[in-house]
Write a structure and sequence with these properties.
single chain, 484 residues, alpha/beta, two-stranded antiparallel sheet, 20 helices
């Protein structure tokens, strides 16, 4: 038992992510890791495969609790939902006030708010921590977004800093805010990831249709892009995916993979939450819908004979077209991040979280899936103007869209004329134009709403709320105003 008491952190759930995080923790100086899995087989396998690791195995929750020094700190890496609740119940039965339970899964942030409140009532700290970087990041250094109390952060902070990715000398972890703030920010991160991936896929599709380039040739284009402004993890791995050849058929692997994209829910949650907050995240939403459409084979088969444009996409200057696509991708990616940070700002206001936007951009520079060169520019933008109303209006990003918007428009127009679906490119441009429009047709929508439902409207020339008494022949109107 003396050895067991030396563990300063424990991991519950030893599937791939959990076992990799346990290995990461155990590899850092000063950490000894208690490990527990409902099935001891996974515990035994981890011990056998990594005998050098500073692990303390447990066969029960009681043993697991006894192996941890106080305040006990446990990281849960189990399936979100009922499984997480079951583990929390088991841990609270053997933990004491002041101990810390960390949920490192992709939990819905409202569930985290509920769990934190319930666990806090018995004196135990509960932390919802978003962890990004996939299996490799879990092992080598992820980006970590923990919420929870300041008290829990005092104990947890040094441990998480020891395993986080490092970017420009700084660990990619920060205390995001109270209760569900960490999982909220991770959810938005994943929503941006959906948009980023869809935009890259649309760029690939356009280049392939427009130039006839092979996947390997397009891989070279993405590799070149990754050396410039678009440098990012997703651009880098896209080149690798496109270059890969299927060993069974000898064809490019991308041509063998079924074109039906899956979803694990965080993108959907981002869109649903943004709707509740009244924040337009159209680029993210279209990325979610694009996956949904791809996964409707019966509908797609039935619609395959529907008419399209009379001529396919034709490009006379391939190099110029590719450069236009690059610029359109850059501009659209900026919109995705801008919309994502709009949602973070709104969520912080709604749930009273003190989220520092620049710090979030910093911790996304390494370890996470959406790490990209221009994240430093986001940190700079919020440092210069903490009250920035929209990221795209910051000077650096305004300069980018100023230089790219003409190419962006050409790409979206050509795609529409040629019948190439570009939902995220198109919706991002429409959002940009809506944002900068001096006057929108929402005035007509308000008139329609007032006509059929007496929903009222405001005027540009007087204060108050108004309703028109629309006559039967629609020639006589009266207007009523109030200060309410």
């Amino acid at each position: 038992m003396a050895k067991a008491a030396q563990a300063n952190i424990g991991v519950v759930g030893l599937a791939v992510m959990g076992s990799n995080l346990a290995r990461n923790l155990a590899s850092r100086d000063g950490n000894t890791v208690a490990i527990f899995n409902r099935s001891y087989e996974k515990t035994a396998t981890l011990l056998a495969e990594h005998p050098e690791a500073h692990f303390v195995p447990a066969t029960s929750y009681e043993e697991f609790a006894a192996a941890l020094s106080k305040p006990r700190t446990a990281l849960i890496m189990v399936q979100a939902g009922a499984g997480t609740d079951a583990v929390i119940d088991a841990l609270t039965a053997v933990f004491e006030p002041g101990d810390i339970i960390v949920d490192g899964g992709n939990a819905l942030f409202t569930d985290t708010i509920r769990r934190e409140k319930a666990v806090r009532e018995i004196g135990i700290n509960f932390v919802g921590a978003g962890i990004s970087g996939g299996e490799e990041g879990a092992l080598l250094g992820p980006s970590i977004m923990p919420g929870g109390s300041a008290e829990a952060w005092k104990t947890l902070g040094p441990i998480l800093r020891s395993i986080a990715a490092v970017a420009e000398g700084e660990p990619c972890v920060t205390h995001v805010g109270t209760d569900g703030a960490g999982h909220f920010v991770k959810m938005i991160h994943n929503g941006i990831e959906y948009a980023d991936m869809q935009l890259i896929a649309e760029a690939y599709d356009l280049i392939r249709h427009g130039t006839g380039a092979t996947p390997a040739e397009i891989a070279d284009i993405f590799t070149e892009w990754n050396a410039g402004e678009l440098e990012s993890y997703l651009i880098e791995i896209t080149a690798e995916v496109l270059r890969h050849v299927d060993t069974k058929t000898g064809k490019p692997l991308v041509d063998v993979i079924l074109d039906q994209a899956g979803s694990k829910g965080t993108g959907v949650w981002t869109v649903q939450t943004a709707l509740d907050l009244g924040i337009p995240v159209s680029g993210i939403a279209e990325a979610v819908f694009a996956r949904a459409l791809s996964s409707k084979p019966a509908q797609r088969a039935a619609a395959s004979a529907l008419p399209g444009p009379s001529a396919p996409l034709t490009v006379t200057d391939s190099a110029a077209f590719v450069e236009d696509v690059r610029q359109a991708l850059y501009a659209s990616k900026i919109i995705a991040y801008s919309q994502g940070f709009d949602a973070i700002v709104a969520g912080a206001e709604q749930y009273n979280w003190d989220i520092k936007k620049g710090e979030i951009a910093k911790i996304w520079r390494g370890g996470c899936i959406i790490r990209a060169r221009f994240l430093n520019r986001i940190t700079d933008a919020y440092a210069e103007n903490p009250g920035l109303v929209a990221l795209v209006t910051a000077p650096f990003f305004t300069d980018v869209v100023t230089t790219t918007q003409e190419a962006w428009r050409r790409v979206v127009a050509l795609a529409a004329q040629s019948g190439i679906p570009t939902p995220s490119f198109s919706s991002s441009l429409a959002y940009y134009d809506g944002l900068r429009a001096e006057r929108l047709p929402a005035a007509l929508v308000q008139g329609q709403r007032d006509f059929f439902g007496a929903h009222t409207y405001k005027r540009i020339d007087m204060e108050g709320i108004f309703h028109t008494l629309w006559s039967g022949d629609r020639t006589e109107i009266e207007t009523e105003g109030s200060s309410h």
